[in-house]
Amino acid sequence: MARKNLIGVSDNHVADGEDRPLAGLVGLSPGQRPSSPIGGITRSLSNITQKVERAQELERQLAEGLAIIELDPALVDASFVADRLGVAAEAEQSLLQQIRDHGQQVPILVRPHPSEDGRYQVAYGHRRLTAMRELGSKVRAVVRDLSDEQLVISQGQENNARTDLSFIERSLFAARLEDRDFSRDVIMSSLGVDKAALSKMIAIVRRLPVDLIEAIGAAPSIGRRRWTELADLVANDDKRTEAHGYARRSDFLARESDQRFETLFAFLSTVKTRSQAVAWVAPDDTRPVRIRETNSETTLSFNKKAAPGFADFVRQRLKSLYLEYQEETGD
Fold first, then answer.
1. Helices (H), the chain
2. Boundaries of each ParB-like N-terminal domain copy (predicted)?
3. pTM value?
4. Where are the domains of the chain?
5. What is the tens place of the pLDDT at every residue in 173-210?
């Protein structure tokens, strides 16, 4: 089978990797360098070369005498570890149209399902599988016997070779693998990162509520620094409560993922943080009460030395104070 057909690199219709700078480079012969920047690439040539080599290695694995067969999409299940935070509807329709026009150029990689006879489990190619299912067609696939470790390494390396996942998707994928007791070595192999980079990726996920990450989505334009800054903003419970409340708003959910990140970040940056307690000065110039106010509550702290028994005095009169407050406000 020709190299081009196997990896799915064509001039204008690369399935599951549309508009990716790497896709246009996979056809380079070993050692050949692009003569000019492609697709706005600003990364160093060494980084590009590494990605090309990983893509070529995936191609080599597919070409090792493994036949491409057609499977009923209904018999194929997703990987046991999710690596995406959703796909934009525009990207889904673009891939669907390309496959409708040109066919499925790149086979997906699956393994026999480890616990259900007659079924299969995807290592990579989830978007192609979804598109073929929607088109009502069989999906072209390579079937390999893969261990769990081999599956996640193949899954991560294929996405990494295509520069296909955002920073937070890769980080969440790493954290999910660690939660399933995969070793750091396996995770590093899957993502193509070193130990220091992996530690930073997982650390950011551990500092953020996963449901908040999922609410924001892939945020493809947002890198590690901005996600670290967001983690700093939600470091206390008050800010996390504010963030979750904002993330449920309909206007937030209606935005694109990058915009969801930016609007949440801007909102949290302007939310009142926990202020230092301010002393209340009594008519006798003592300071029997300190007042601390946040967006969600106001706290009064009574100084027992400055005014012994004052806290009990106020507590016993809370009911009458509240009734007086209701009369004043009309509640």
1. 3-7, 45-62, 89-102, 126-135, 148-161, 167-179, 184-191, 195-207, 210-216, 224-233, 237-247, 250-253, 257-270, 310-316, 318-329
2. 69-160
3. 0.59
4. 53-164, 167-272, 278-329
5. 999 999 999 999 999 998 889 999 999 999 999 999 99
